[in-house]
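Hey,
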Amino acid sequence: SIGLIPWIKVLGGFIGSLIVGFLLGFGITKLIELICKNMNKGKTNHFFNNGQIVSSALMNFVHGIQDGGKFIGITVLIFAILYQDKPLNAAVNAINGTWWIYLPVALVLFTGCLLGNKRILNSLGRGMANINNYQAFATDIASSIGLLVATLFGLPLSTGTIKNTAMMGTAA
């Protein structure tokens, strides 16, 4: 039987996604508003419009790192099937603690997201909340920070949930 601890970790990750996304989105938006309150609106709009390219790229890369573990798990399973004479523990131990194995997966997901999800991002961004350029920038930065910290601590946050609640936090 599967113990209670993995279920608590998954449930905690889901609830944590809701809280972390909203709070980071809200906090980063307020910080940007405080920093930019006396600046020229045209210049800040230009900065955040261009900054969305960088923040979106960062979000997609971190998304790849966070979700990369799933693909790495499938890879381990394939190796275990191919090398049936070796125990599964050997395949898992061979990649355990190797951070670089996440990079190719993150780069593939990063590239795929940048090339293929503009329509989804546009419909989500426009359909869920009416946000400005700086708020979209804040959403990506908040989501990236939340996912990166969760990844570093091995917490299973939901990428979609943290992104959506960060958007709600920025709109709030």
